Amino acid sequence: NAGVTQTPKFRILKIGQSMTLQCAQDMNHNYMYWYRQDPGMGLKLIYYSVGAGITDKGEVPNGYNVSRSTTEDFPLRLELAAPSQTSVYFCASSPPTGYEEQYFGPGTRLTVT
Amino acid sequence: GQNIDQPTEMTATEGAIVQINCTYQTSGFNGLFWYQQHAGEAPTFLSYNVLDGLEEKGRFSSFLSRSKGYSYLLLKELQMKDSASYLCAVRGRDTGFQKLVFGTGTRLLVSP
């Protein structure tokens, strides 16, 4: 049971490049989330999904896109990377049981220069 | 919207007790979570409160007062490995019950 996995662990992008951050969970969780965490700050929600085919914006969605074609996978797409997107990105999942503890992946450290 | 306040940083001594406070404002409160995050790592779940009172789990306890919009995390018998950031997160009607809003976290430094 791997839990929540994320790839890559680290990435450096040039301004204007694009990339996809991968996230997968093997716990059959319906809910999945993408957060970003800037140094010394809390977690800001980018996008979330309540099930396959359903996604919605969080607090800071600009510059990002997501898709959820399967229960397991929830990739985050960055188009036209900007220095402001330098951050640590965490993917999380939770079951819709009412006791919604979120399980986090190890994170992706992204630098845009 | 939701507003969550925590102290930025706290220091304590090994073996001591420390209390980390969290105040929040939300409509339709539906749960408060505490997470621990070591530097460079992902957050891990510590505790969940939805009713008033104290929840105890080993060396860690969490308290909630819904009428005051207040929670605290109590860490007893501090160990060096407890040096980490502690994130308070709230779920409420105004941002959707499927989502959590996180505070900026309290960095705890435990010294020998």
Please tally the β strands of chain B and state the result. 11
Mean pLDDT of chain A, to the nearest integer, reads 94
* Overall morphology of chain A: globular
The helix tally of chain B amounts to 0
Overall mean pLDDT score of chain B? 94
Largest sheet composition of chain B: 6 strands, mixed
Portion of residues within helices of chain A: under 10%
Rounded to an integer in angstroms, the radius of gyration calculated over CA atoms of chain B is 14 Å
Termini separation of chain B (Å)? 41 Å
**Tertiary shape of chain B:** globular
- Strand % of chain A is over 45%
Strand count of chain A: 11
Classify the secondary structure makeup of chain B into a structural class. Answer: mainly beta
Largest interface: A-B, 24 and 20 residues
Features:
heterodimer; A: 113 residues; mainly beta; seven-stranded mixed sheet; four-stranded antiparallel sheet; globular; B: 112 residues; six-stranded mixed sheet; five-stranded antiparallel sheet; 0% helix
Would you kindly provide a brief summary of this structure?
The complex is a heterodimer of chains A (113) and B (112). Chain A is an all-beta fold and 113 residues long. Chain A contains no helices and eleven strands.
Tell me what the structure shows:
- The complex is a heterodimer of chains A (113) and B (112).
- Chain A is mainly beta and 113 residues long.
- Chain A has no helices and 11 strands.
- Chain A has strands at residues 4-7, 10-13, 19-25, 31-37, 43-51, 54-57, 64-66, 76-78, 87-94, 103-104, 108-112.
- In chain A, the strands form 2 sheets. In chain A, strands 2, 4, 5, 6, 9, 10 and 11 form a 7-stranded mixed β-sheet that branches. In chain A, strands 1-3-8-7 form a 4-stranded antiparallel β-sheet, with no helix packed on it.
- Chain B is mainly β and 112 residues long.
- Chain B has strands at 3-5, 9-13, 18-25, 29-37, 44-49, 53-57, 60-65, 70-75, 84-92, 101-102, 106-111.
- In chain B, β4 (29-37) and β5 (44-49) form a beta hairpin.
- The model of chain B has no long low-confidence stretch (mean pLDDT 94).
- At the A-B interface, β4, β5 and β10 of A face β5, β9 and β10 of B.
